[in-house]
Amino acid sequence: MAFMNVTEVLQFVDQLVFERTGKHLDDVQKAVIEGSYKGQTYHEIAENNHFNKSHVGEIGGELWKFLSTTLGEDIKKTNVRSTFERLQITALPIIIQNNNKQNNNHTFNFSVLNSDQAIQKYQEKDTDTKSQSVYHDLTLAPQIIKFHNRETELQTLSKWILNQNISLISVLGLSGIGKTTLSRKFIDLNLDKFEVIIWKSLKYPQSLNSLITDLLNTYQQKYEETLQANLKQLFDILIQKRCLIILDNIETIFTNGQFAGQYQPEYLDYQKFFKMITEINHQSSVMLISQEKCPEMNCLYQQLNLSQCLELSGLNDINILDNIGLKNQDSWLQLIQIYEGNATYLKDIVILIQDVYDGEVTEFLAENSLIITQNMQSHFHDLFNRLSAIEKQIILELSKLNQPISRDDLKQNLSLSSVEFVKGLQSLQQRYLVTKIKEDKILFKLSPVFRQYVIITGATGSP
């Protein structure tokens, strides 16, 4: 009998909590479950995750009470692992009985089951049950804290995925712009539309074969020795079931120091895989979330419904600054525009304004300076080091300008061949660092926040 590993335990408990409360586990709850399963004390859990010890203990007490009531067992921190193993809940993905396809609320009510009944439900494997089961693995999907003003983008995703059955969708844009939050929100609104939903992150990149093996394990499939055999199994599932697979942080499989979207040699199999997604007829969708665009993300033949790209820009919505202790609401929009409506930039700046200006936005703006925080600088350092030498030359020239510039004028100031210049300019757009502006003539503009970073560091890439 194979028992759950810690990842599967997190998924199990997350689904129990979601079914009862409509909310997923937060970071503290996840840390408590994972640490307790590994035999750590509350003090160790708090230190390892930079949480308050007393808060960790309170959360733990609530979790054990919840699990005890739900599963009909006396579950404590000291016995959580042994109890799960004794109950012999096998290492399976969470299966939610969903016999009413018209009801967005799953009909599996954990609160009325004793432990024997719960185990029996999870171990049912007959054909009828499988045909009505929903397999969700959202363990690595982030929680949504705030969501604002992306209704148009949600409608676009719904049209592509639910109505047009687009096979490959890319959600693209700068880090912090809201790609992952949008994707998670779409899932939360459409859980009942898919028989299988799996979220995987490539923040720490892995080989394609390793990824496919993980996907098959999640869906309770035995993986094979070869990539070809595993791919066949995966596509059989994509054909038979309505699946949504989300792959986050795709940019990590691309090469530093080259133009955007160039695969590292060890990850070239992904290029073939993404093409297969669009070439093989199936009823599922794969969503790629990336800070860089690769050739497979381009859509030239929209009428063929092969792939689509959703490129996100910043939000100009003062509601994103609600309830975070800032003053001078009439100045919020100006602050948002300065930092390009990027939630991550704004989070850092809001903390700075609270610490140094006591929340007074007007006093911060009176400095008349675009401040780059240490977190931003560290992020931009990594981003700058991803650029090719040609892109860095173009960036350096653009950083000298505080106005958009035409392609011809920009090229005149650079000692690059026409081919190098065109490729570099295209690549910077595919990284969302340079924006094309259509006016009387086409102009190009460097991201103002990134421009400020280049100015203060001298374009050396030093943190």
How would you describe what is shown here?
The protein has 4 domains: 6-136, no CATH class; 140-311, P-loop containing nucleotide triphosphate hydrolases (Rossmann fold, 3-Layer(aba) Sandwich), CATH 3.40.50.300; 318-371, no CATH class; 377-457, Arc Repressor Mutant, subunit A (Orthogonal Bundle). Helices cover 47% and strands 10% of the residues. The chain has 20 helices and 10 strands. The protein has helices spanning 6-21, 27-37, 42-49, 53-71, 80-86, 115-123, 127-131, 151-163, 179-189, 208-218, 227-240, 269-279, 332-338, 343-357, 361-366, 374-386, 389-399, 407-412, 418-430, 448-457, and strands at residues 95-97, 133-137, 168-172, 196-201, 243-248, 285-290, 307-311, 405-406, 434-438, 442-446. The strands form 2 sheets. It has a 7-stranded mixed sheet, sandwiched between helices. A 3-stranded antiparallel sheet has the order 8-10-9. It is globular, with a radius of gyration of 24 Å.
Question: In a few lines, what is going on in this structure?
Answer:
With 463 residues, this protein is α/β, with parallel strands linked by helices.
Helix percent reads 40-55%
Measured distance between first and last alpha carbons: 51 Å
* CATH class label of the largest domain: Alpha Beta
Please count the beta strands (DSSP E, at least 2 residues each).
10
Q: What is the CATH third-level topology name of the largest domain? A: Rossmann fold
